[in-house]
Amino acid sequence: MAKIPINIDGTALEVEQGQTILEICQANGIEILTMCHMKGLGDVGACRLCLVEIEGINKLLPACTTKVAANQVIKTKTEKIKKYQKITTELLFAVCVSNGKCELQDLGYKVGMTHVRFPYLFPQCEVDTSHPWYVMDHNRCITCTRCVRVCSQVEGSYNWGVKNRGVSSRIISDFNTPWGESTTCTACSKCVHSCPTGAIWPKAIVQGQLTKSPQMIADLVERRKMNL
Amino acid sequence: MMHDLLSKICNGHGTARDVEMLEELSIYVKEASLCGLGMSAPNPLMSTLRYFKNEYIEQLKKSDAIKGGVHG
Ligand code: FES
Protein backbone atom coordinates (compact mmCIF):
# COMPACT_ATOMS: atom_id res chain seq x y z
CA MET A 1 0.00 0.00 0.00
CA ALA A 2 1.03 3.55 -0.64
CA LYS A 3 3.11 5.33 1.99
CA ILE A 4 2.06 8.80 3.05
CA PRO A 5 3.93 11.42 5.05
CA ILE A 6 2.38 12.68 8.30
CA ASN A 7 3.57 14.52 11.37
CA ILE A 8 2.70 13.55 14.92
CA ASP A 9 3.81 15.73 17.83
CA GLY A 10 6.59 17.21 15.72
CA THR A 11 7.96 13.89 14.46
CA ALA A 12 7.77 13.28 10.74
CA LEU A 13 6.61 9.76 9.89
CA GLU A 14 6.06 7.73 6.75
CA VAL A 15 3.04 5.53 7.26
CA GLU A 16 0.83 3.19 5.34
CA GLN A 17 -2.52 4.48 4.25
CA GLY A 18 -5.70 3.01 5.72
CA GLN A 19 -4.50 2.87 9.34
CA THR A 20 -6.12 4.76 12.18
CA ILE A 21 -4.20 7.45 14.02
CA LEU A 22 -4.32 5.29 17.14
CA GLU A 23 -2.71 2.31 15.37
CA ILE A 24 0.09 4.51 14.12
CA CYS A 25 0.70 6.08 17.51
CA GLN A 26 0.80 2.71 19.21
CA ALA A 27 3.19 1.32 16.61
CA ASN A 28 5.47 4.32 17.10
CA GLY A 29 5.42 4.43 20.88
CA ILE A 30 3.31 7.57 21.16
CA GLU A 31 0.99 7.15 24.12
CA ILE A 32 -2.68 7.84 23.56
CA LEU A 33 -5.13 7.29 26.39
CA THR A 34 -8.07 5.05 25.50
CA MET A 35 -11.00 3.46 27.27
CA CYS A 36 -13.60 2.13 24.84
CA HIS A 37 -10.94 0.90 22.42
CA MET A 38 -9.97 -2.73 22.79
CA LYS A 39 -7.47 -4.56 20.67
CA GLY A 40 -9.27 -7.06 18.47
CA LEU A 41 -12.62 -5.27 18.48
CA GLY A 42 -14.11 -2.74 16.08
CA ASP A 43 -13.93 0.86 17.34
CA VAL A 44 -16.93 3.07 18.05
CA GLY A 45 -15.38 6.34 19.28
CA ALA A 46 -17.62 6.46 22.33
CA CYS A 47 -15.46 7.55 25.25
CA ARG A 48 -13.74 10.58 23.63
CA LEU A 49 -10.53 9.96 25.55
CA CYS A 50 -8.34 9.48 22.51
CA LEU A 51 -9.21 12.87 20.97
CA VAL A 52 -6.37 14.51 19.04
CA GLU A 53 -5.89 17.86 17.39
CA ILE A 54 -5.33 17.94 13.65
CA GLU A 55 -4.12 21.12 12.00
CA GLY A 56 -6.71 22.62 9.67
CA ILE A 57 -9.64 20.79 11.24
CA ASN A 58 -11.48 22.91 13.73
CA LYS A 59 -12.79 20.10 15.86
CA LEU A 60 -11.12 17.35 17.83
CA LEU A 61 -11.20 13.88 16.33
CA PRO A 62 -10.94 10.50 18.07
CA ALA A 63 -7.69 8.75 17.15
CA CYS A 64 -9.28 5.30 17.31
CA THR A 65 -11.77 5.86 14.50
CA THR A 66 -9.96 8.46 12.39
CA LYS A 67 -7.94 7.20 9.44
CA VAL A 68 -4.77 9.08 8.56
CA ALA A 69 -4.57 11.25 5.48
CA ALA A 70 -1.47 12.55 3.71
CA ASN A 71 0.34 15.55 5.20
CA GLN A 72 -1.73 15.61 8.37
CA VAL A 73 -0.16 17.44 11.28
CA ILE A 74 -1.45 15.72 14.41
CA LYS A 75 -0.97 16.85 17.98
CA THR A 76 -1.71 14.44 20.81
CA LYS A 77 -0.42 16.21 23.90
CA THR A 78 -1.58 19.83 23.83
CA GLU A 79 -2.77 21.51 27.02
CA LYS A 80 -6.33 21.41 25.69
CA ILE A 81 -6.23 17.67 25.06
CA LYS A 82 -4.80 17.04 28.52
CA LYS A 83 -7.49 19.17 30.09
CA TYR A 84 -10.24 17.36 28.20
CA GLN A 85 -8.83 13.95 29.08
CA LYS A 86 -9.12 14.96 32.69
CA ILE A 87 -12.73 16.12 32.34
CA THR A 88 -13.65 12.96 30.42
CA THR A 89 -12.16 10.77 33.12
CA GLU A 90 -13.85 12.73 35.89
CA LEU A 91 -17.19 12.43 34.14
CA LEU A 92 -16.71 8.68 33.78
CA PHE A 93 -16.04 8.49 37.51
CA ALA A 94 -19.18 10.47 38.17
CA VAL A 95 -21.23 7.58 36.86
CA CYS A 96 -19.03 4.73 38.07
CA VAL A 97 -18.78 3.74 41.71
CA SER A 98 -16.32 0.93 41.24
CA ASN A 99 -13.58 0.97 43.79
CA GLY A 100 -11.85 -2.27 42.95
CA LYS A 101 -8.92 -2.51 40.65
CA CYS A 102 -10.05 -1.24 37.35
CA GLU A 103 -8.75 0.37 34.17
CA LEU A 104 -10.72 3.47 35.02
CA GLN A 105 -8.79 3.95 38.24
CA ASP A 106 -5.48 3.55 36.43
CA LEU A 107 -6.67 6.17 33.99
CA GLY A 108 -7.46 8.51 36.85
CA TYR A 109 -3.84 8.29 38.03
CA LYS A 110 -2.56 8.82 34.50
CA VAL A 111 -4.41 12.07 33.88
CA GLY A 112 -3.40 13.33 37.31
CA MET A 113 -6.87 13.31 38.80
CA THR A 114 -7.04 14.04 42.51
CA HIS A 115 -10.78 14.27 42.98
CA VAL A 116 -14.02 14.55 41.00
CA ARG A 117 -15.28 18.13 40.72
CA PHE A 118 -18.61 17.08 39.27
CA PRO A 119 -21.50 15.93 41.40
CA TYR A 120 -21.81 12.15 41.37
CA LEU A 121 -24.94 10.96 39.62
CA PHE A 122 -25.29 7.84 41.77
CA PRO A 123 -27.79 6.24 39.41
CA GLN A 124 -29.71 3.53 41.24
CA CYS A 125 -29.14 0.71 38.82
CA GLU A 126 -29.95 -2.93 38.96
CA VAL A 127 -27.52 -5.67 39.76
CA ASP A 128 -28.33 -8.70 37.65
CA THR A 129 -27.34 -11.84 39.53
CA SER A 130 -29.58 -14.17 37.56
CA HIS A 131 -26.74 -15.78 35.63
CA PRO A 132 -25.42 -18.94 37.30
CA TRP A 133 -21.75 -17.89 36.99
CA TYR A 134 -21.52 -14.15 36.43
CA VAL A 135 -22.91 -10.90 37.80
CA MET A 136 -23.69 -7.72 35.88
CA ASP A 137 -23.62 -4.65 38.14
CA HIS A 138 -25.01 -1.75 36.12
CA ASN A 139 -23.91 0.70 38.83
CA ARG A 140 -20.31 0.22 37.80
CA CYS A 141 -20.92 0.26 34.07
CA ILE A 142 -19.53 3.17 32.04
CA THR A 143 -21.24 1.93 28.82
CA CYS A 144 -18.01 1.67 26.86
CA THR A 145 -19.75 -1.19 24.96
CA ARG A 146 -16.64 -3.36 24.97
CA CYS A 147 -18.74 -6.31 26.20
CA VAL A 148 -21.33 -5.68 23.50
CA ARG A 149 -18.67 -5.69 20.80
CA VAL A 150 -16.76 -8.70 22.10
CA CYS A 151 -20.03 -10.64 22.31
CA SER A 152 -21.06 -9.92 18.74
CA GLN A 153 -17.71 -9.56 16.96
CA VAL A 154 -15.67 -12.27 18.66
CA GLU A 155 -18.01 -14.76 20.32
CA GLY A 156 -20.76 -14.20 17.75
CA SER A 157 -23.60 -14.79 20.18
CA TYR A 158 -25.10 -11.29 20.24
CA ASN A 159 -26.30 -11.55 23.83
CA TRP A 160 -25.38 -8.00 24.88
CA GLY A 161 -26.99 -4.87 23.47
CA VAL A 162 -27.60 -1.24 24.41
CA LYS A 163 -30.91 0.39 25.27
CA ASN A 164 -31.74 4.09 25.59
CA ARG A 165 -29.48 7.10 24.95
CA GLY A 166 -27.21 9.46 26.83
CA VAL A 167 -27.10 9.11 30.62
CA SER A 168 -29.94 6.59 30.54
CA SER A 169 -28.02 4.19 28.28
CA ARG A 170 -27.91 0.70 29.73
CA ILE A 171 -26.38 -2.56 28.61
CA ILE A 172 -29.04 -5.23 28.16
CA SER A 173 -29.04 -8.99 27.81
CA ASP A 174 -31.14 -10.32 24.93
CA PHE A 175 -34.38 -8.31 24.79
CA ASN A 176 -33.83 -6.62 28.14
CA THR A 177 -34.43 -9.82 30.07
CA PRO A 178 -32.44 -11.21 33.02
CA TRP A 179 -29.01 -12.47 31.96
CA GLY A 180 -29.74 -15.89 33.47
CA GLU A 181 -32.65 -16.36 31.09
CA SER A 182 -30.59 -15.54 28.02
CA THR A 183 -31.00 -17.96 25.16
CA THR A 184 -27.97 -16.58 23.34
CA CYS A 185 -25.31 -16.32 26.06
CA THR A 186 -22.73 -19.09 25.83
CA ALA A 187 -21.19 -18.23 29.22
CA CYS A 188 -17.84 -17.83 27.46
CA SER A 189 -16.64 -15.12 29.90
CA LYS A 190 -15.22 -12.88 27.17
CA CYS A 191 -17.30 -9.94 28.40
CA VAL A 192 -15.86 -10.47 31.88
CA HIS A 193 -12.34 -10.07 30.51
CA SER A 194 -13.22 -7.13 28.29
CA CYS A 195 -14.91 -5.06 31.02
CA PRO A 196 -12.57 -2.20 32.06
CA THR A 197 -14.31 -1.67 35.40
CA GLY A 198 -15.87 -4.08 37.85
CA ALA A 199 -19.29 -4.19 36.22
CA ILE A 200 -19.14 -7.80 35.00
CA TRP A 201 -17.50 -10.31 37.28
CA PRO A 202 -17.58 -14.02 38.06
CA LYS A 203 -19.53 -15.03 41.16
CA ALA A 204 -16.85 -17.37 42.43
CA ILE A 205 -14.41 -14.54 43.02
CA VAL A 206 -14.15 -11.77 45.56
CA GLN A 207 -13.89 -8.32 43.99
CA GLY A 208 -10.29 -7.16 43.95
CA GLN A 209 -8.93 -10.66 43.51
CA LEU A 210 -10.13 -10.88 39.96
CA THR A 211 -7.34 -10.95 37.42
CA LYS A 212 -8.53 -10.23 33.93
CA SER A 213 -6.69 -10.96 30.73
CA PRO A 214 -7.96 -8.45 28.17
CA GLN A 215 -4.98 -9.35 25.97
CA MET A 216 -6.57 -12.78 25.49
CA ILE A 217 -9.23 -11.28 23.23
CA ALA A 218 -6.77 -9.64 20.85
CA ASP A 219 -4.70 -12.85 20.78
CA LEU A 220 -7.78 -14.88 19.96
CA VAL A 221 -8.69 -12.60 17.08
CA GLU A 222 -5.13 -12.83 15.73
CA ARG A 223 -5.04 -16.62 15.99
CA ARG A 224 -8.33 -16.93 14.15
CA LYS A 225 -6.95 -14.83 11.33
CA MET A 226 -3.99 -17.20 11.00
CA ASN A 227 -6.24 -20.23 10.66
CA LEU A 228 -8.11 -18.72 7.75
CA MET B 1 -25.26 18.02 35.16
CA MET B 2 -25.10 21.41 33.41
CA HIS B 3 -28.81 21.85 33.99
CA ASP B 4 -28.28 21.17 37.69
CA LEU B 5 -25.53 23.77 37.85
CA LEU B 6 -27.68 26.36 36.11
CA SER B 7 -30.65 25.64 38.40
CA LYS B 8 -28.37 25.95 41.41
CA ILE B 9 -27.25 29.40 40.25
CA CYS B 10 -30.83 30.50 39.47
CA ASN B 11 -32.07 29.30 42.85
CA GLY B 12 -29.59 31.49 44.63
CA HIS B 13 -27.20 28.77 45.77
CA GLY B 14 -24.57 29.33 43.11
CA THR B 15 -20.93 30.29 43.54
CA ALA B 16 -18.36 31.75 41.15
CA ARG B 17 -16.91 28.25 40.89
CA ASP B 18 -20.24 26.97 39.52
CA VAL B 19 -20.27 29.57 36.75
CA GLU B 20 -16.67 28.69 35.91
CA MET B 21 -17.49 25.00 35.75
CA LEU B 22 -20.52 25.70 33.59
CA GLU B 23 -18.31 27.57 31.16
CA GLU B 24 -15.71 24.83 31.16
CA LEU B 25 -18.28 22.08 30.59
CA SER B 26 -20.04 23.97 27.78
CA ILE B 27 -16.84 24.31 25.82
CA TYR B 28 -15.87 20.71 26.55
CA VAL B 29 -19.22 19.31 25.40
CA LYS B 30 -19.18 21.49 22.30
CA GLU B 31 -15.72 20.39 21.23
CA ALA B 32 -15.50 16.79 22.37
CA SER B 33 -18.90 15.52 21.24
CA LEU B 34 -19.37 12.72 18.77
CA CYS B 35 -22.60 13.94 17.20
CA GLY B 36 -23.92 17.20 15.83
CA LEU B 37 -26.46 17.56 18.61
CA GLY B 38 -23.75 17.58 21.26
CA MET B 39 -21.70 20.07 19.28
CA SER B 40 -24.51 22.60 19.22
CA ALA B 41 -26.46 21.79 22.40
CA PRO B 42 -24.38 24.10 24.67
CA ASN B 43 -24.74 27.06 22.27
CA PRO B 44 -27.75 28.76 23.93
CA LEU B 45 -26.09 28.47 27.32
CA MET B 46 -22.81 29.81 25.98
CA SER B 47 -24.61 32.78 24.45
CA THR B 48 -26.12 33.68 27.83
CA LEU B 49 -22.69 33.42 29.39
CA ARG B 50 -21.25 35.68 26.71
CA TYR B 51 -23.95 38.34 26.48
CA PHE B 52 -25.47 38.27 29.96
CA LYS B 53 -22.39 37.86 32.12
CA ASN B 54 -23.54 40.80 34.23
CA GLU B 55 -26.79 39.04 35.09
CA TYR B 56 -24.79 36.04 36.29
CA ILE B 57 -22.62 38.28 38.42
CA GLU B 58 -25.69 40.05 39.84
CA GLN B 59 -27.28 36.72 40.68
CA LEU B 60 -24.10 35.55 42.41
CA LYS B 61 -23.99 38.74 44.47
CA LYS B 62 -27.61 38.16 45.51
CA SER B 63 -26.78 34.57 46.43
CA ASP B 64 -23.85 35.78 48.54
CA ALA B 65 -26.11 38.26 50.28
CA ILE B 66 -28.64 35.52 51.11
CA LYS B 67 -25.97 33.18 52.36
CA GLY B 68 -24.38 35.97 54.37
CA GLY B 69 -27.76 36.61 55.96
CA VAL B 70 -28.27 33.01 56.90
CA HIS B 71 -24.85 32.35 58.32
CA GLY B 72 -23.87 35.67 59.72
S1 FES C 1 -10.73 5.03 22.61
FE1 FES C 1 -11.21 6.38 21.00
S2 FES C 1 -13.10 7.21 21.63
FE2 FES C 1 -12.74 5.71 23.13
Q: Low-confidence segments of chain B, ≥5 residues, pLDDT <50?
A: none
Give the biggest sheet of chain A: 5 strands, mixed
* Content of β-strand of chain B: under 5%
Oligomer: heterodimer
Number of domains of chain B: 1
Strand order of the largest sheet of chain A: 2-1-5-3-4
Order of helices and strands of chain A: EEHEEEHHEEHEEHEH
Q: Give the chain pair forming the largest contact, with residue counts.
A: A-B, 16 and 11 residues
Distance between the ends of chain B:
30 Å
CATH fold-level topology of the largest domain in chain A: Alpha-Beta Plaits
Overall pLDDT score of chain B: 85
Discrete helix count of chain A: 6
The CATH architecture of the largest domain in chain A comes to 2-Layer Sandwich
Structural account:
- The complex is a heterodimer of chains A (228) and B (72).
- Chain A has 228 residues and is α+β, with helices and mostly antiparallel strands.
- Chain A has 2 domains: 3-77, Ubiquitin-like (UB roll); 127-225, 2-Layer Sandwich (Alpha-Beta Plaits).
- Chain A has 6 helices and 10 strands.
- In chain A, a hairpin with a 6-residue loop joins strand 8 (160-163) and strand 9.
- Chain A is globular, with a radius of gyration of 19 Å.
- The two termini of chain A are 22 Å apart.
- With 72 residues, chain B is an all-alpha fold.
- Chain B has one domain (2-66): NADH-ubiquinone oxidoreductase 51kDa subunit, iron-sulphur binding domain (de novo design (two linked rop proteins), Up-down Bundle).
- Helices cover 82% and strands 0% of the residues of chain B.
- Chain B is built from 5 helices and no strands.
- The N and C termini of chain B lie far apart (30 Å).
- The interface between A and B is medium-sized, with 16 and 11 residues.
- FE2/S2 (inorganic) cluster is lined by residues 34-37, 45-50, 62, 64 of chain A.
